């Protein structure tokens, strides 16, 4: 199995670490170099509202049913979860998954006036109760790639009138998504979307927009930002009210990464990534190395089998998380990458 985009990526290592940070495509780097040049030459500062609009539109293509008006932009996932926490009534119960990524749960945990209840990922749907106001969970777990059973969870949240926030930072780009399946969608662009560390997106279902509250609106969140810079009148009436001033270079990189995924199609990317992960899982089984089960391009193995030092010595980039060694397979990877990782792990 070849790279889906031969010529677009130039890793000098066996890069199996998209779950930590995606590789930038060449077309993104070329555009960034040009933008930096123009900036340095004093001709054009990086960024522009048109690129932000294109990025919002790109995200709606990954989330069929959403419109650009439903999309807010900020630097981080944690920042974008804040307005959802701020909109909940005092004392509301938020259900989260044990071991989920901190940016998904901290805005609720440290809000000061919310009750956070934790349950194992596998039991999340059963744990939704009439007292639950919101469930906040990563669709694909960052630590080990496990997927939440979305159909069951959505049935449970609907039955109990609870809202659902999904973090799709580890899922968007390879897993088909549908806007109607959750009330809020938050996503970092720097992993599977091949974007930038400084750009994250939030999609808000209009029916659940009332329950969000802007936490730190700057000039960029105003209804008419250019005329209200010194004369505030009102915040945008769309999800843009949760925008914070974007980093132009990041937006450019994120827009190009997203367009590239769109061009390949999420279905083709998912098939490629999952096939490589499956090849890896089959090879691990033959080596008697256990892996956390799941149908995900993120594969983790217990640290004692992973021997991070051995993997690193073979010039393979993977990450240790929670005493597990985590491998992630994406568009630039090939079967040869998988086999090199298996060889390193199998060496006595
Ligand atoms: C599931 C998930 N959400 C969010 C993030 C990033 O969060 P933030 O943008 O707040 O740093 C990561 C990884 O860095 C992640 O794995």
TrEMBL record:
<keyword id="KW-0456">Lyase</keyword>
<dbReference type="InterPro" id="IPR015424">
    <property type="entry name" value="PyrdxlP-dep_Trfase"/>
</dbReference>
<dbReference type="InterPro" id="IPR015422">
    <property type="entry name" value="PyrdxlP-dep_Trfase_small"/>
</dbReference>
<dbReference type="InterPro" id="IPR015421">
    <property type="entry name" value="PyrdxlP-dep_Trfase_major"/>
</dbReference>
<dbReference type="InterPro" id="IPR000192">
    <property type="entry name" value="Aminotrans_V_dom"/>
</dbReference>
<feature type="domain" description="Aminotransferase class V">
    <location>
        <begin position="121"/>
        <end position="290"/>
    </location>
</feature>
<protein>
    <submittedName>
        <fullName>Hercynylcysteine sulfoxide lyase</fullName>
        <ecNumber>4.4.-.-</ecNumber>
    </submittedName>
</protein>
<dbReference type="GO" id="GO:0016829">
    <property type="term" value="F:lyase activity"/>
</dbReference>
<dbReference type="Pfam" id="PF00266">
    <property type="entry name" value="Aminotran_5"/>
</dbReference>
């Amino acid at each position: 199995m070849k790279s889906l985009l031969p010529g677009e990526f130039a890793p000098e290592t066996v890069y199996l670490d998209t779950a930590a940070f995606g590789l930038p495509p060449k077309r993104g780097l070329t555009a960034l170099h040009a933008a930096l040049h123009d900036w340095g030459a004093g001709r054009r500062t990086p960024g522009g509202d048109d690129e932000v609009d294109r990025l919002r539109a790109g995200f709606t293509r990954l989330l069929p049913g959403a419109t650009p008006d439903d999309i807010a932009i900020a630097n981080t996932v944690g920042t974008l979860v804040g307005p959802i926490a701020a909109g909940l009534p005092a004392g509301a119960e938020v259900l989260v998954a044990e071991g989920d990524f901190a940016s998904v749960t901290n805005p609720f945990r440290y809000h000061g006036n919310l009750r956070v209840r934790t349950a194992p990922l596998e039991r999340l749907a059963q744990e939704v109760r009439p007292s639950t106001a919101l469930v906040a969970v990563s669709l694909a777990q960052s630590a080990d790639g496990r997927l939440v059973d979305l159909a069951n969870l959505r049935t449970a949240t609907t039955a109990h009138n609870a809202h659902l926030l999904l973090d799709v930072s580890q899922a968007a780009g390879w897993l088909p998504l549908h806007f109607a399946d959750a009330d809020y969608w938050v996503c970092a662009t720097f992993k599977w979307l091949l974007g930038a560390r400084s750009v994250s997106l939030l999609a808000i279902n209009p029916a659940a927009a009332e329950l969000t509250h802007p936490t730190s609106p700057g000039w960029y969140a105003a209804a008419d930002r250019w005329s209200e810079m010194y004369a505030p009148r009102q915040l945008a009436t769309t999800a843009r009210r949760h925008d914070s001033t974007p980093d132009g270079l990041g937006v450019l990189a994120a827009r190009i990464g997203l367009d590239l995924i769109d061009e390949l199609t999420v279905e083709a990317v998912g098939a490629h990534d999952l096939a490589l992960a499956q090849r890896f899982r089959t090879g691990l089984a033959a080596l008697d190395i256990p892996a956390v089960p799941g149908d995900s391009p993120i594969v983790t193995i217990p640290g004692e089998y992973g021997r991070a030092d051995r993997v690193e010595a073979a010039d393979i980039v993977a990450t240790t998380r929670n005493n597990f060694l985590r491998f992630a397979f994406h568009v630039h990877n090939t079967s040869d990458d998988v086999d090199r990782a298996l060889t390193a792990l199998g060496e006595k």
